[in-house]
Give the backbone structure.
Amino acid sequence: MTETAGERRAQQSREAAKSGEPGRGGEPARREPQGITAEMILDAAVKILEEEGHAAVTMRRVAGDLGVAPPTVYWHVGNKEALWARLMDRLEQDLRCVQPVGSTPAERICSVVRGLHQQLRRSPALHALAEVTGRSLTLYSPSQSVLVAEFQRAGMSPRQVGFALHNLLAFSASFFYVDVFLLKEGRRTHHFAGPDALAPELDPDTAAAVTSDADMDAVFEFQLAGLVDSLLALGDDG
Amino acid sequence: MTETAGERRAQQSREAAKSGEPGRGGEPARREPQGITAEMILDAAVKILEEEGHAAVTMRRVAGDLGVAPPTVYWHVGNKEALWARLMDRLEQDLRCVQPVGSTPAERICSVVRGLHQQLRRSPALHALAEVTGRSLTLYSPSQSVLVAEFQRAGMSPRQVGFALHNLLAFSASFFYVDVFLLKEGRRTHHFAGPDALAPELDPDTAAAVTSDADMDAVFEFQLAGLVDSLLALGDDG
DNA sequence: ACCTGAACACCGTTCAAGT
DNA sequence: ACCTGAACACCGTTCAAGT
């Protein structure tokens, strides 16, 4: 909420570096790393993030890995919150646009959402960041227009397209969060039911089924298929 | 993962306090707070959690609010991770069992999930804790048997009941997480679409609908109704 | 059994000072 | 413009020592 002097300084240095990029003076554009750049800081932070999680990403640690004093990091990126934001921006840019696959609209839409989910799931850095930044709801930008186009082709009205997109993004985001927190707990599978879940008179078969590990992939596919069908049905009688 | 000596000591003190509760010796059971109890520590922590969020919950702060030195808190609760766990246990116990309302199975099941969601949403302490502990997937214990009973009454097989329950719990948990992270960002509504969401040739009406704030309550209700219908349909042709 | 003061090894951040 | 040493105000945690 408050913009510190450090952040403002970092902003200026970024601008300066950018405007200096297309060689405008007399000298040839030499880019010897006579010091450290913001990009190098992000590189180091991502590396720590992937290998040791968000708790290990310390301003002092980042500085140390680059052989530099802590205030240098502050000079380049402002502060820690700005570092998180920049990391999120970078990881967001790395997300590829998912192309739809399949013959029916339902198949194509499902394939895009599934592709997004798998892409997010494969990035340990994103998982670690999600714990700390609370963003990732706008992560899916590059693939959003693909989804919009599919819904339009299915004959949905503008309002319906908006509602459908919001539904799919909420769906993706929420399953991503579940992944994040499962990982945080160190669990690979869901074991939802607590000891209080069972009424004492419950038959053994049902008790076993309820307390067994949840197959989250099956849950994901089941809910995705149902959701996409419901959304497309909105267009039929619109 | 490692049980420290401090935790073990705290465990013993808890046991001792418990076994001393039903007055067993000669003296009458007097319970003057000649010092501090673990319960008082939890009270203080919950208060900070509700009013200032998880970042304000500091061992020193908790101690200070109780007029006690930091090591005293360690003596009673072990360490900070144990404090989080105990807080989660307490908040979990405060969750009431939601009773189903409605005439059809779908209505009754939806009413329970909706009730759970609203209950979680109303607890700022739970939100704050979810950011830090990553639990809350087993939060719904007291209402789970209600859901199981409803699915059984709808004629579903044991395996189907298990799958249905896992679906509903995953659904509840994921919407809870979305709430948590929206709150962390300080947003009240969802604005999913980033600037890249729109293909340039998109018609203005659709563009406006897509970039408008998402009505998350409508999304919740739409997905819940669709999910419950799909789950109950599993029982029809089982 | 319960509590304390003092310390250790960390944080994020700033700031005057260097080149 | 870029980097540093030193400091400030915090953390979680431990430990010997008190009663």
